[in-house]
Each structure stands twice: as structure tokens, then as C-alpha cells.
């Protein structure tokens, strides 16, 4: 059988069938137009081992003497007795190409009654998508314990990078050497989790933002999961992921099937920025992406709309909903240039704090005797869209819906808690509504549908504020079915209201994955609006998720989550490189500070077309107190002199050991093109100018700009001013 050879964007994938299994023998750099005879890759047989070469199959299995983590784990239940057909001997039964970029490979074991079909697609930007479907072709039930998607990495991948975190400190990196054994990151939250590793990346020694080879995977799933690196004794390493199934969660009846979440994987020989490029290309090529074309990304008419400036009311008023106050807030927001006004938690029946009301998705008549219409009309008449906060997957015990249907709360017991069943511990005074129950699902759908049908709502901030612990339906584990039911709820509401955008918020950043992002239009990266914390959170969220999908807001002067105080410029420049907004009582912003905030709103509107379409560039700096990141215009940069080619921000996160930064390279520009670099903020004359910098005399170019080639800027760089800690410098690069 001829090998499968897929190529895209400097990446190639080669699959051999010589062993009787499908084996990925290369995933990495492009190998050119043709392949040699793959017999030259025949592996040796080692001492004290099976008497045949052992393939690292697409579905690693013990029947081929693979001694690492298997792809398929399960067993057949025959006459009520479990444990049969525990080790399938899966061999290739069919290979069906799907154009030049995709293939479906089917393995089967007729004796065990198991068939696994694997769909692989290498997308235009080089992102590989892989998923398996297992089918029970036998005559008795088959209990599936795990079906993992795995990929091999090259022997020179010796370091592993993944992400971890907690509430208000999501997505922070950690590194370790790859060693023999298995490194597993397990998520048992019932949602993606604050500590979830958004990306699992293996790479060459010291790989960085823009250097080194990197092989990286992401599991597109919003429930329990595992991601892992598995290195066996012969030195081969596999990386991959799987849904983490609960006890007997998936039992396949004869003819029944299960499909894994998609594993997305990218290869780069240009460090982590190359990984981001592959993911960004995939997002931006989707037909339903919020910015479906380059014209829309540039904010041009007739081609979609740019990402609107948002004001969210949470940190402005919390639960204190008063129509007069909110209209004043809308007036102030509109005057600043806000384009979307979002009413947060507190608008529905019985909701005066976080202990009651969840599940009763009716407008509170005591707060809103005329409904939400007066506020919505006030918002829309001022030229803004209206958005609304909801949390459809949760309930409070103190709610009408729970009083009427106690059996709709998930838990480990068959009985409802009213009938003696045990509930999981409360989390922020709330429990999870059982969307696996069709009546509960329909109730939630009907209530949210009625809100959207009866009000001029353009946007839902969809929250999900607790882990799904001891999560059960009718006494059996059900995180798997709950996750699918939540997906169906998103899908059904999107189909009924295609013009409504949805934000995925989950205690901030606890549900960030490509499964939820297939159904939503942005994520809330973190409940923390502290700009210093956000620099790291947004940087590593942006490793996978492009900035137009990441909400970044200017919070109050003193952060509500950390009590840290920052200048407005640092907060605004941090929020600029995302989907920009504010979460602040902007009525209190007056005088020079208000004019400065307007200026940043204008900067965002001027440059959002570039920020939301360009290549993300992150420099590798020796001084760990500094970060340089920016966005470079796609397709090699604009050709017209004076057009904006890039925006960069130099950020100081803490004091530097050096008196001055020295020359800092500005990477990512076209080598042979000429560019002009100038400071946008702070510029000479700005009030922030003096206290941002630590200098008696600025670098020669700072006040008048500098012109140089992209090669010069990348190799020599420009001398940068010293920055005070927690301050930033915004640079604009234009075509000269």
C-alpha cells in the first residue's frame, strides 16, 4: 500500500502502512515534492525484545508490542461478565483520500469486533486535525475506557512546555526536560479548567518565541481530559490527548460508535510564533469566524464588522442595578466611543447577590417593571449594541426552578436531594443543572430563546462559574453527556439567533478550548483585569487563540482582584492587543484622564483591523524584565508608503538589572523593505512621557522616528529608553 503524504505551509505528514498498521513516520518539516523508498526506514530488532520491529502506530497497541501508553483501552461485556477483548489487534482495512489534504484510515479487528476510523486533515496553514471514531462491530456491549489521539515527535525534541494556572492567574508556562516515562496533565474539573494546559509543546533545546523546532498539540474538548507526553525505553516520544471518561460513561451497544474530540497539532521550525501562525490561520479561515475576510478585519463596509469597543457593567455596579445609574453609565460610555454595552449579573428574578436566582431566567419585575426595554432602548439609541450576562448551566438552591424540579440538579445519587439523594458540595452557592435531562435542557433553551426573541440583544456573556464535581445523571457519571448537551444548547441557540454573538466566560478563563470556541465568538481570558497579570495571561492565551477572540478590558485604577494600581496607559496598552473594552465605572473618569481614555479608544479603532488580522510577533529578549510583542500586517506587509505595517509594545514588568535596555531588535518585518519606526504612546508632550521613562536624555530616534530596513531592525535593532516598572511604550511601524 502506498504511503499517504500530506503537505501544507512548510509542514508535511507521512504515513506508512508497511507494518500492517498506519504509522506516522514523519510529522514536521516539508520534505519536498517526492519521497524515497520508505524501506530505508526499516527499524532494527533489539535484544531482549519482540522478534520484529515495533511500529509507533497511529493507534499504538500492545498487539504490536508497543510498551507505552495505548491509544485504545476498553473491554467487552459478554453475558454480563466484563473483561473480554481487552487487547484488540487492529490492522488497516481501508485508506480513503479526501482531496490533497485529508485522508480517512480504518483499522479493524473482526475477531474482537472493533473498528476504528481515523480522519486526518492538514489545513492550509499547516494545522493538523485528527480524530478517531470507534465502532462496536461485535454482538455484545463494549465498554470504552479511553481512545487517545497521539502523534510522534522527533528525537531532538528534548524539552516540554505546557501551561498551568488558577483563578485570576490562568495560562502561565512551565518547562521540563523530556525523560523516560509519562508526563500527564489531567483535568477533572468537568470543564477545561483554570489550570488547563492550553497547549502541549515539545521542542528542541531552549526553543523560544522565534527559534527552535516545536511540535505542539491542543485537545478541542470542554470536559474532563488528559494531555500527555509518553517516552518509552527505546527513546521514542509520543504526545497527545484524550477525553477522560468516568466509570462506565461510554458503553457501546452493538453498532454503537464514539468519536474523540479533535486533536489539533502544529509543527514549527521558527519557535512558538510559528505554532501561533498555524492556529491563527485555521481560526481565520473558518466560514463562521467573527471576521470572515481581510476587508472585514480592516473595518471596511459591506464585509462584516470590526470587533466593537465593549463596556461591561460588572466592576462598575456589581449587583446594584438601577435604571437611572445604568443610563448614566450608557451616556458616559457612548461619549467615550463605546460600541457594545453589556449588562452583567443581577437583572433576573431574586438576584440581589450570588446566593439566589440562578435558573430563573425571567427579568425581575421588581427591578425592571417595564422589562429591560427602557435600558435597551437607551443603549441602542446612543448607537451601541446591547449585551446581557447569563449563566444557563447553573442553578441556586434558592430558585423557583429548583423548588419545582429538584431532580434537575446533577449529583452522584439516583434520587433527588429532596428524596434523600446526596448533592455535591456547593460552589459559589450554586449547582449544575442536568442538561442531559431533556426536560431541563428544553427549559433552559426555551428561557434563553425567549430572552433573545423578546429583546433587542446582540450579545450574550455566557458564564459558567463552577467545576462539575461528582457530576452524575440518574446515578451515573455524566460529564461526557453534559458537555455534549451544552454544545447542543449553544448550537441550537446560534441556529435560532444567528446574529447574536456569544462570549465564553467561565469564572473568567476556565473554559478556553477549541471545542467551546467552535460555538462562541470570543473568550473572557480571566476575571483579573490587573494589567501586569494580564500581560502574561494574554500572551500565553494568544499562543493558540487570536486576539480578536480574546476579551481584554481596561479596569479601574486599582485592580479589584489584586489591589495593584497602574497608570491608565499601562492598562489600556495591555487591553489594546485583544478585543478591547472597559470594565469600570467610566462616569468617574474626568478631565485629562478621560481625554486619554478617549485617545486609547481611538487608537484601538484605528488599528483593530491590523491587530485582528496580522501575524503575532513575540521577541526573544535576554532581559527577563522586558517583553516586546506586536502584530505585523499579513502577506508581507503593506506596499503603500505611510501605511501601518506593524504595532509593537515594549513592556517593563519589573526592575531591570541593567541601567538601560540597550539596542532591542524588532523582528518579523520583511527583510528588504524600508520602515519608519516612531513612538505612538507616550510621545513627546504627553503627560505620561516623563514618568514612563528612566532617562535624562532619550535615545536619538525616540522623538523624531527612525528609518531602516526590516533586516536592520531585526539584526541590529534600536536603542530603547529605560522604562519604569509596569509601564509600556507603543511603537508604530509604517512602510517607508
The major sheet is characterized as: 10 strands, antiparallel
Strand content: 25-35%
Report the span from N to C terminus.
55 Å
What is the overall shape? globular
- Rg: 27 Å
Task: Count the E strands.
Answer: 41
Fraction of residues in helices?
Answer: 10-25%
* Low-confidence residue ranges: 293-303
What's the pLDDT, averaged over the residues?
A: 95
Structural class, by secondary structure, is alpha+beta
Individual helix count: 14
Explain how this protein is built.
- The structure is a single chain.
- The chain contains 14 helices and 41 strands.
- It has 736 residues and is of the alpha+beta class.
- Strands 6, 7, 8, 9, 12, 13, 15, 16, 20 and 21 form a ten-stranded antiparallel beta sheet that branches. Strands 22-23-24-27-30-31-32-33 form an eight-stranded parallel beta barrel, surrounded by four helices.
- Helix 7 runs parallel beside helix 8 (479-496) and helix 10 runs parallel beside helix 11.
- The longest helix has 21 residues, at 591-611.
- The relative contact order is 0.08.
